Amino acid sequence: MKNQTIIIIGFSLSAISCGVPKSERVFVSPDLPVVQYENANGNAVPGGGTPITGLAAWNAAVDRYVPATYEGDIKPTLDQFCVSCHSGDAPKAGLDLSTLENVKAKMQGIVVNIKGKQMPPKAGDLPDDQKQLLVDFTDTLENWSRAPSNFASNLTEISSLSYNTEIAPLTDRICATCHSGATPKKGFLLDSKAQWSKSYDIALAQLTNGTMPPGMDSVRRNRLIELLKEWNTRKQP
Questions:
Q1: d(CA 40, CA 188)
Q2: Could you give phi then psi for residue 24, rounded to 5 degrees?
């Protein structure tokens, strides 16, 4: 299934699975109650197919819009799958993946080898959840190279975390789907910077205790929380 765009009126809180290429992302539009596909460059793509809504769309929004960092997103996966062979005085194939600079220099090769199932060894024999983790990791590596990440080691190195540019594209697709309009869920709004400033503490508490968004895994939830904390600390426009 290639180059798809979906427009659906209304929302669903249940995820509908779909064979969407990993180079494409799914998001809930901040302008209309719709779901549509977008490619890795953030542009809507033409076509048709089955929509992904609810949890699947929220997860995709985190993957696409939370800036990737070396310490938070790259190093943990490399430590799990790669550095046991690719580190030390005699790394396998002469490839040392134990430092940020080495990973940055070899990033495209890492992506090609993971996608080609050449690394890690016997990648085809891994459990399905670990196979999916590796597929997602290639997306994360490519996102790490793009703005605003720009190969950052951690969130403090990202120069701009403004509401309109970095925060709203994410929270409009995840939080405002429930926390907007005349009768927002739990009685608080999260559809503007002013409302986030007003409801930040309660929203962060709900995120931290797992109440919102419902069903999101701990890894994505923590990425979302850390981004919001850093943005709130900076008090940028």
A1: 32
A2: -110, 155
Q: Enter the pTM of the model.
A: 0.69
Quote the tokens at residue 165: 């540019």
pLDDT tens string 49-76: 445 567 877 887 887 788 889 998 899 9
- Reading the block at residue 159, the tokens are 């120069």
First-to-last alpha carbon distance for the chain, in angstroms, is 39
Per DSSP, the three-state class of 83 is coil
Tokens of 17: 């699975």
Grouping H, G, I as helix, E, B as strand and the rest as coil, residue 39 is: strand
The DSSP code for 24 is E
Report the alpha-carbon angle 132-134-136, nearest 5.
70
- How far apart CA 48 and CA 130 sit, in angstroms, is 30
